């Protein structure tokens, strides 16, 4: 069968269609003539580029204002590449208009100008949004008189050039498009640089990155292949910033941006979705390397200015390699909604008043691999960390100290250029007030003010006749009530225990102080401890230990503990404030220890830092030395364990719970008694009916010292490796095999102080020797811990050899 071909189109029609096709393919923009405008009322009010990739118009920002901007319009994720009024958002109803006289202006609903396209605009005939992302104002002959590419904000696009003295300025934050803290500029000498900015003065700080292309006029060019480089005006490439790696603009949307964190990044986005991907579009832009600089936290070290983050804060790279601005302990964000503003101390800083030293009111919080470079005012070589700490604590100007490699740098406030990074080494010591209370006038000051007030009132009264009338009224008043006012009264003193200045409370006082014994702090076999507040002492917090109604043992424990603690006075012992011995009620009142027990501190989850653990171990040792050798009546504690070591707000270790203490007369050296203490910490002699001496506390301290070093309990049944269940056996095996580093796990602080770790382990092994005579006295333990005495190689703890 034959088919008839259709009649050919007339040649004139074919020619017309061909001309239309050519005309369409040649058009690269859509003209918006004089009088065209857009109104800030919704996101649909925009001018699109011919290919639909870019739009120009209004975008509503989170705070409700409208930003006049250019953005990618073909991808789900809103990506703004240029903006006009980031510092002054437009209210709803504002209008941008290309006026009939060729001006391009943004005005609010009342007609007040917010923004305008500056320059010689005489002869403007139309505006156009080009396919490249460039917004232009052009003459009738398509000569561009103004274009957004010549005034970039924080982003450049392919075919965009930054000429000499041109720059990008970062926005303030992810959602705040006002001028930010960093700039990327081509200097007059041809160098491409990154700098932080002083927002208040609208000036720049020293360079923190440069291309090193000094010596010839140059410009930054983003070519159509996706490469970004610095080139001389003659076209030669001086410095490659980011290579395309075949990610051409034919396959990917591209942009490069100086982001609000001060880092210059190059991103791509595929124009076609990945067919193998279930999603129609990727979730975000893909970052190309390198980023400039690679670590903004360590790159910005300025003699002036705050650094990568605000004053008193520090910069740390997150898992996504983006900088995070954080406050050190003792400091809070000035504005929690704007972390770039920096941090402020949440305590009253140290006074420089010579009449009242405040050294003891502060402590130093350590931070590994942390520094605030360039803000030091004093530098000392060849000093120990303890010296550095004491020097800062005694110096009212010192806000923090940096210690490392035998050197001590003291820093003044505000701290600048804060950074945390594993490459830094050393540690920062942040000075913090022990309590967060504010200053109140001292009693002397109050008396002085009261005296001044009385003098002033007296002077005024004496200077007028009113004084005499008041004097007569006062005499009459005293005459009427003289018997009540001048009747002799007996001052009722609180009963005290003989030989001790301890207050005797009534049971009702302590019941009220503890709100009916409601908030429990802890409990043991014979007692429960409650938190309380003494109304008679301005609400001072206390710990009230309530003994159970066990007539014999409870009463014995009460008498032993009150007698023992009442006669002691040492920094590393819990202070006894008073007691109640009323009927069947036995209560003891201690100072309140805000940080709880050492057990909670060591085994509570996050690992305490190494220096804090060292100080706690030394404090406990000094407390035991006092009990054994320095107080008037020698005391064997008999139950040293983490639960009985309490910590105050500055983490000072204080020995508590003397209920099991065994009192010795001054001429006695040892005693024999029944087993006391807690399983796991009890010395072997308790089980062998051997004489019990102060060496039982030394044994318990040895177990405790190992727990402090390793932040784990002496026995842990749930450990898979049976060899590690008993801490003492495992540590001794590691010590013999010279593998102590393996037993430390991921404790980087302790790993960096292995000499001290080994010394402390050796001391602990000496302390847990089965033969009591081999165990050192607490005085020698402290000398060895402080490095004043060498530590001999210890024997196997279960062996019996010659004394240390």
What share of the residues lie within helices?
A: 10-25%
Q: Mean of residue pLDDT?
A: 81
The whole-angstrom Rg is 39 Å
The CATH topology of the domain at 152-292 is Agglutinin, subunit A
General shape: elongated
How many strands?
45
- Ends apart, CA distance between termini: 119 Å
Largest sheet properties: 6 strands, mixed
User: What CATH architecture of the domain at 152-292 do you see?
Assistant: Orthogonal Prism
Strand order in the sheet with the most strands? 36-40-41-39-38-37
Strand content: 25-35%
Number of helices: 16
Poorly predicted sequence stretches spanning 5 or more consecutive residues: 1-28, 275-282, 436-468, 480-494, 662-675, 800-804
So what's the CATH class of the domain at 152-292?
A: Mainly Beta
Could you say which structural class the secondary elements and strand pairing correspond to?
alpha+beta
Family: Belongs to the protein kinase superfamily. Ser/Thr protein kinase family.
Protein name: Receptor-like serine/threonine-protein kinase
Subcellular location: Membrane
Catalytic activity: L-threonyl-[protein] + ATP = O-phospho-L-threonyl-[protein] + ADP + H(+); L-seryl-[protein] + ATP = O-phospho-L-seryl-[protein] + ADP + H(+)
Secondary structure elements and their pairing?
Blueprint (H helix, E strand, L loop, with lengths): L10 H16 L4 E3 L3 E3 L6 E3 L5 E7 L5 E7 L7 E4 L11 E4 L5 E4 L5 E4 L9 E4 L5 E4 L5 E4 L7 E2 L4 E2 L4 E5 L7 E8 L5 E7 L4 E8 L7 E5 L5 E5 L4 E6 L9 E7 L5 E7 L15 E7 L3 H4 L14 E4 L5 E4 L4 E3 L9 E3 L16 E7 L1 E2 L4 E6 L3 H9 L6 E5 L2 E5 L7 E2 L6 E7 L9 H20 L3 H15 L1 H5 L16 E2 L2 H7 L6 E4 L3 E8 L5 E8 L3 H16 L9 E7 L2 E7 L6 H6 L6 H21 L4 E2 L8 E3 L5 E3 L6 E2 L31 H16 L16 H10 L3 H4 L4 H4 L2 H14 L10 H8 L19
Parallel strand pairs: 25-34, 36-40
Antiparallel strand pairs: 1-10, 2-7, 3-4, 4-5, 5-6, 7-8, 8-9, 10-11, 11-12, 13-22, 14-19, 15-16, 16-17, 17-18, 19-20, 20-21, 22-23, 23-24, 25-26, 27-28, 29-35, 30-34, 31-33, 32-33, 32-35, 37-38, 38-39, 39-41, 40-41, 42-45, 43-44
Helix pairs in contact: 10-11, 10-16, 11-15, 12-15
Pfam families: B_lectin, Pkinase
EC number: 2.7.11.1
Main location: membrane
